[in-house]
Write a structure and sequence with these properties.
Structural class: alpha/beta
Largest sheet: 8 strands, parallel, barrel
Strand content: 5-15%
Strand order of the largest sheet: 1-2-3-4-5-6-7-8
Number of strands: 8
Number of helices: 21
Radius of gyration: 23 Å
Shape: globular
């Protein structure tokens, strides 16, 4: 039977996160939302990832209000988010009660598909979020495999993880290739293995960094992949994704036809070209970001990690040590239990490799983040860490062998008390939980606007905030 391939459009989240550091505003999105809603995408990824941080820190926007606006203007299209398991959208592990409340509020405000992943592929860090989403009902729970390369990361390894994902109650599995390390034939073999292992839909998310994304998507579809992630062409390619229109055209008239109308898609392009031109003019979009770079495949490290390593070496006046650092990265990664090189593990491993090289002695200087990862504060690494190495790094501290969040007391009530003066909606406590003072600064600006410190209601503001 013909198989209709689903398309997840990333233009409202990962495409601009990858190319312009997540700076697309709700105002930029609003005019095109009704037209996007008419296309018939399997889903539109519009929230989660770095959008929450960017809204509060840089754009002066309430991320919850953004979600509600998108939902209002796209009632016919499932809205999707990216969620970092026990880390939610922040940068530490949170207690279960906070994770559960975040999932509940995300779904209540309009999320239909929640894609959950963990940097270490530790299923224990995902179970609370999975169970919370299933409890809410109605939402599609997709669990993502953090794809990476290395001697232990065989198709069998990923298939075994997919079994655990299925057992945990996921509705579908996503191969999440953030670093663009997939090659076309590896995509084919991996999808075949997963399809033979679990009876769940398989989705592929990959980036164009190495120039292989379209080929990877095509081979994955031929191997049985059910849904693929793409981006409207003006914000595709480079560190973003394969162009939506191109993939729809490639599959048109075949047994894998997406069913999407290429003419209707092309009618959206001028609007996004206008945004692209605006971003280039403002300096947000560097055209260099749109070029393919196969160094990702040569060094087996993400493109962002490569530039970060070079930046650290420049600051230390040691640019000539780049090759040594790139050779040190896999050794550090092996010592640390082969963590996938994705945020935050890529930064942790990369920085330690830099320290090892410029310090002249391996592990003479150890970052607190590397020590935390070796201790088990981020979860269980794909391979056990050598006990002697662990002792050397921890210097007397006991390793953590349980799920890290099991050591956390419930914290939602405490967080509510801390930010009580700022709360104007229930969701504010979740903004505060993840971004602390960044959220408080946003709340202050919101209050100032509400009470006239922007000049609208000056007298009222003077009474409430006497100078």
């Amino acid at each position: 039977m013909p198989k209709k391939i689903g398309i997840t459009e990333t233009i409202l989240r990962d495409a601009h996160q990858s190319l312009i550091a997540t700076r697309m505003t709700t105002e930029d999105m609003l005019p095109i939302l009704p037209e996007l809603d008419k296309i018939g995408f399997r889903s539109v990824e519009c929230w989660g990832g770095a959008t929450f941080d960017s809204c509060l820190r840089f754009l002066g926007e309430d991320p919850w209000e953004r979600l509600r606006i998108i939902k209002k203007n796209m009632p016919n299209t499932p809205l999707q988010m990216l969620f970092r398991g026990q880390n939610m959208l922040g940068y530490r592990h949170y207690a279960d009660d906070v994770v559960e409340y975040f999932v509940q509020k995300s779904i209540a405000n309009g999320i239909d598909v929640i894609r959950i992943f963990d940097a270490l592929n530790d299923i224990r860090n995902l179970e609370t979020a999975i169970n919370a989403a299933k409890k809410e009902g109605g939402a599609h729970v997709q669990v993502a495999i953090s794809f990476t390369t290395g001697e232990i990361f065989t198709d069998d390894y990923f298939a075994e993880y997919a079994k655990r994902i299925a057992d945990a109650g996921a509705d579908s599995v996503c191969i999440k290739d953030m670093a663009a390390l997939l090659t076309p034939y590896r995509a084919e073999s991996l999808v075949k293995k997963l399809k033979a292992t679990v009876d769940l839909p398989i989705q592929l998310h990959t980036h164009y960094t190495s120039g292989l994304a379209s080929m990877c998507l095509l081979k994955a579809v031929e191997a049985g992949c059910d849904v693929i992630d793409t981006a409207m062409s003006p914000l595709a390619l480079g560190t973003s994704h394969a162009p939506t229109e191109s993939m729809v055209a490639a599959l048109q008239g075949t047994e894998y036809d997406t069913g999407l109308d290429l003419v209707k898609l092309s009618e959206l392009r001028p609007y996004f070209m206008g945004l692209r031109e605006k971003y280039i003019k403002s300096g947000l979009l560097d055209p260099k970001m749109l070029a393919a770079d196969a160094k990702t495949l040569i060094y087996q490290v993400p493109g962002g990690m490569l530039s970060n390593l070079l930046s650290q070496l420049k600051q230390a006046g040691k640019e000539d040590k780049l090759t040594e650092v790139l050779e040190e990265v896999p050794r550090v990664r092996k010592d640390a239990g082969f963590p996938p090189l994705v945020t935050p593990t890529s930064q942790i491993v990369g920085t330690q490799a830099v320290f090892n090289v410029i310090g002249g002695e391996r592990y003479k200087m150890v970052t607190k983040e590397f020590r935390a990862m070796v201790r088990g504060e981020y979860g269980k690494t794909p391979m056990p860490i050598d006990p002697e190495f662990q002792k050397m790094i921890l210097k007397g501290d006991e390793p953590i062998t349980c799920r890290p969040a099991d050591l956390l007391e419930p914290e939602l009530d405490k967080l509510r008390q801390e930010c009580a003066e700022w709360i104007t909606q229930e969701e504010d406590v979740l903004s505060y939980a993840q971004f602390g003072q960044v959220a408080v600064k946003f709340f202050e600006k919101r209050r100032d606007k509400m009470f006239g410190l922007d000049g609208v209601h000056g007298d009222a503001a003077a009474q409430i905030h006497p100078v």
